[in-house]
Write a structure and sequence with these properties.
Blueprint: E1 8-12, H1 16-27, E2 31-36, H2 41-45, E3 48-52, H3 53-62, H4 65-71, E4 73-75, E5 78-81, E6 87-91, E7 104-108, H5 109-116, E8 121-122, E9 126-131, E10 136-140, E11 145-148, E12 150-153, H6 160-164, E13 172-184, E14 192-196, E15 202-207, E16 212-220, H7 232-240, H8 247-250, E17 261-269, E18 275-276, E19 279-281, E20 287-288, H9 296-313, H10 319-349, H11 353-370
Parallel strand pairs: 1-2, 1-12, 2-8, 5-14, 12-19
Antiparallel strand pairs: 3-7, 4-7, 5-6, 9-10, 10-11, 13-16, 13-17, 14-15, 15-16, 17-20, 18-19
Helix pairs in contact: 1-9, 3-9, 9-10, 10-11
Bound molecules: flavin-adenine dinucleotide.
Length: about 375
Amino acid sequence: MTNGLTRTVLIIGGGTSGNTLTVLLRRAGITVDLVEASPDWKAAAGSGITLQGNALRVLREVGVLDGIEKDGYAADGVAILTPGGTVIYAHDELRTGGEDLPAHIGMQRPGLQQLLIAEVRLGTTATAFEQDGDGVDVTFSDGSSRRYDLVVGADGLHSATRDMIGITERPEPTGMGIWRAPAPRPAGVSRTEMMYGGRCFIAGYCPTSEDTVYAYLVERARDRASLDPDAYADEMRALSEGYGGVWEEIRTAFTDPKAVNYAYFDQLLVEGPWHRGRVVLVGDAVHCCPPTLAQGAAMSLEDVLVLAELLTGHDDWDDQLLTDYRARRLPRVRLVVEASVQIGRWLLDRAPDQERGKDVAALMGRTMNALKELP
Ligand SMILES: Cc1cc2nc3c(=O)[nH]c(=O)nc-3n(C[C@H](O)[C@H](O)[C@H](O)COP(=O)(O)OP(=O)(O)OC[C@H]3O[C@@H](n4cnc5c(N)ncnc54)[C@H](O)[C@@H]3O)c2cc1C
């Protein structure tokens, strides 16, 4: 295929998976062009993120773990509480990335983006593909064009690449929405804690540094048209009323509506092939789930680790290789999507609080234990 020439890959989308794949392939001597639709990369990153152990395992491979440990907050587990603050379940040592990595690290998304930053053409999208057996001719939104050995669609939930290659599955709403905002870290909060029940389905917080947490409230999805962005901080304060413990302190931080983010929970699992010819999809473009297990970015990172391993380990970048990639990922991704969606359904069904907490804890434990296996 390459006749001794350096191989070329186009990666569309500079989010978690696109950046990581760029680093992994460039390190192996592959020429990578990375295009990102957003003209302002930092803004695209938004809010806080929980990086579970299996995500940290990939990020260590990429070489950014030291930076993540420095910027973020390594936590020793997760707990589910009642709205009043009584612990229903706590898990201290669920280390999905192996015993030498923390259970999870919370950090601000822009910080992660900064660590992963790869040379990128901002404000650019691919507008057309023309494929033959050996490669893809790509036309870009600025009118330029170039031929690649492979194109990777890492353009997230509403992937245009997915549309362009004719994969028709679309993300579906799960009926839940989430309010998120940063707040100072209350003394004594050293793990992710989620209160189940009360006015919201979940009222949670995750340390993102020595000084900060990101706080979130999950409720039934609302019509965006009915929301006033200038009242976002008031909404978060009102929704958090009735949650005890450190929420008394956290809610006082919700004063700036611009610091509050509102998002829907969606679900998607593309069961059929994840490629057409030499265009292949990774991450949210082919699977997403409510972040009830905080595993979306972890699954996306594992996708690109496996794809990079196959691309750098084999000379033939053929149909079989891309079929093998999906076959290796699908069972594990399905496990996460189904468990995350199930937890969401229990929340929507409003099962009695204690029972729900125990069911969630059991499913969470089973799923996270399975993820200790290497991808
Ligand atoms: C509310 C919420 C909370 C979450 N919390 C967690 C968590 O705590 N832990 C966790 O592991 N996961 C979490 N996730 C999931 C996680 O955010 C995603 O799974 C992950 O970001 C997917 O990475 P990605 O690179 O595939 O897509 P994205 O990160 O969405 O990146 C896609 C990129 O492509 C760009 N793009 C889009 N269209 C085009 C185009 N046509 N051309 C070029 N570029 C384009 C976008 O601007 C973006 O930069 C959460 C998700 C949500 C919704």
